[in-house]
Structure formats: C-alpha cells, structure tokens
Backbone:
C-alpha cells in the first residue's frame, strides 16, 4: 500500500522530469493541500453562524409536527437550555426583532458547566434572522448552555415582548429532551411581566459555533 508521503514523492518525482513550470505549480498545490485542514469538518476554524439555527430548524420542523410562530409569547424573557456535545466556542447570536418592536434586547449565553458567559445589548433586523458577533463562550463536549433574550426596560407595551418560537401543532408541551446532531435541547422557559411558562415552545434564538 502506498502511503500519503510515498504518493507525494512519486508524483513530484515524475513532475521533476517534465516541465519545470509545471513542477513548481504542482509543488505549490501540494503544499497548499497539506497545510489545509484535513479533518473534513466544514465548521472547523470558522464561526458557523447557522450551527444551532439549522439544528433547531431540523428538530422542530413541520415534518415533526411543529408550527413556526413569528410573534408569540408576550413575556419579557425567552429562554432555552441545551447541551452541546462538541468542543469549541459559541461565537455569534442570531435573532429577529418582531414587527411590534424595533428596540434592543439583553442577550445572555451562559455556560453553566464551564462557568463562562456572555451578556450584551443587541438590536436585530425586523426583516430577517440577523447574526451578530459576541465575545466567545468556550464550550467543552457535554457542557450545559442557557440562552436568554430579555427585552430592555422601557419597551412601549406588552405586545412588544413577543418573539419567534416553534410550537407543537397540537399545542401540547414540547417533549424535552430532544436530541438533534450534536445538540440536546433540554428545556425552555418564558417569564417576566407574567409567567413562568415552561416548555410551551422553543424560542428561535440561533447560536454560531466554532468547532475546535
């Protein structure tokens, strides 16, 4: 069996017997290939904004009997808890302001296992899911993460507190825990100016993730 190094040697040795320009091009290509990431993980070394968003969309899909409600749950804080079964860092947060509110939220991402967290003020697009960078929250495989969206004080009325959620089409409780890929969804909660209301729906708050 020819090893990778043997194949490189044979290929370059043959090339050296030919055109020198072609040889240089081939060497450059080989060096570039060897220096690149080779673990076949497209998320590695980049912040993939849609990492958790895609998992939410798959786990809470129409095919799985969920409905997408763009403006639901008129409570100040929308929260969910997940377990991420991968090493890396949460590097962005994605949300969409409802039509009823153009102001800011406090976005909180807390690694309750690793004891590191992010909290910041963000205003998102009202027209589409909007991802914004955050100070990274480091995650080790199996860590428990709490994600919160809390409307800022001084909002105009209770209608402004609604947000996008995914809810069972029969209006039953979400049957947590739900595992999809590298994420296990453990619970959700809605509270503030009412509530708490547990596990009625899944808040649509996306997280970008950079896999180590």
Residues:
């Amino acid at each position: 069996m020819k090893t990778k190094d043997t194949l490189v040697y044979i290929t370059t040795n043959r090339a050296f017997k030919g055109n020198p320009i072609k040889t240089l091009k081939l060497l450059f290509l080989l060096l570039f290939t060897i220096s690149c990431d080779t673990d076949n993980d497209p998320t590695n070394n980049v912040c993939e904004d849609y990492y958790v968003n895609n998992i939410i969309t798959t786990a809470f899909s129409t095919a799985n009997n969920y409905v997408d409600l763009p403006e639901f749950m008129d409570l100040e804080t929308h929260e969910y808890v997940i377990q991420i079964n991968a090493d890396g860092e949460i590097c962005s947060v994605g949300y969409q302001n409802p039509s009823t509110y153009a102001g800011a939220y406090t976005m909180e991402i807390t690694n309750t296992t690793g004891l590191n967290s992010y909290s910041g003020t963000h205003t998102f697009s009202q027209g589409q899911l909007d991802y914004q960078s955050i100070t990274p929250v480091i995650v080790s495989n199996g860590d428990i993460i709490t994600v919160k969206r809390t409307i800022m004080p001084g909002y105009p009325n209770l209608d402004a507190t609604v947000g996008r959620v995914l809810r069972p089409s029969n209006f039953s409780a979400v049957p947590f825990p739900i595992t999809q890929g590298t994420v296990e969804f453990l619970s959700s909660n809605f509270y503030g100016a009412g509530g708490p209301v547990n596990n009625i729906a899944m808040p649509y708050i996306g997280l970008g993730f950079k896999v180590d």
In short: The chain has three helices and 13 strands. Residues 1-17, 22-40 have pLDDT under 50 and may be disordered. The first strand starts at residue 66 and ends at 72. The two ends are 32 Å apart (CA to CA).
